[in-house]
Amino acid sequence: QVQLVESGGGLVQSGGSLRLSCAASGSIFSSNDMGWYRQAPGKQRELVARISRLGSTNYASSVKGRFTISRDNAKNTVTLQMNSLKPEDTAVYYCNAVPGYLTWGQGTQVTVSS
Fold first, then answer.
1. Within 13 A of 104's CA, how many CA atoms are on the CB side?
2. How far apart are CA 9 and CA 31, in angstroms?
3. Using alpha carbons only, what angle is made at residue 109 by residues 103 and 113, rounded to the nearest 5 degrees?
4. What 3-state DSSP class applies to 29?
5. pLDDT at residue 27, as a whole number
6. More confident residue, 20 or 74
7. Torsion from C-alpha of 17, 96, 24, 33, nearest 10 degrees
8. 47-66 per-position pLDDT tens digit
C-alpha cells in the first residue's frame, strides 16, 4: 500500500514562506497527476495545486501567483513552495493523486498569523 508523508509545515507570519514536501513509498508518481490539497477547520478539503505526469501545472485562484508545485519522479516527491502567505492559507495540507484515490497521509499543519 502506498504511503504518503507530508512535511514542512509550521507557524509563519503573514507574508512569509514555507516549503512543503511529500514523499511516497512506491513508484506511483510517474503514472499519476499529483496534487496538494488543504483543509481548514470547518471546511471541506480542497485541491489547491496540481501537476500532471508531464509537469504541467494548475492552481486554485486563491493561490495562483503565490504557490508553486513541482515534482521529482525519480525521488517520488512532490513539493509545494508557498510564498506571500496569508492567514486564510491556514490549514492542514495533504498531497495525493488527482483525484485523491490514495490513502490520505497525516498532512502537515500550516498556520499563518496576521
1. 13
2. 26
3. 155
4. helix
5. 60
6. 20
7. -100
8. 999 999 999 999 999 999 99
Indicate the residue type of 104: W
Distance (Å, rounded) from C-alpha 67 to C-alpha 88? 14
Q: Are 76 and 27 in contact (CB under 8 A)?
A: yes
The CA-atom distances, in angstroms, between 79 and each of 11, 23, 24 are 18, 9, 12
The greatest distance separating any two alpha carbons of the chain, rounded to the nearest whole angstrom, comes to: 40
The Cβ of residue 7 has, within 10 Å, a number of other Cβ atoms equal to: 14
Residue-level pLDDT at 28: 65
All three cell numbers of 35: 496534487
Q: What secondary structure does DSSP assign to 80-92, as a single string? A: EEE-S--GGG-EE
Question: What type of residue is 98?
Answer: V
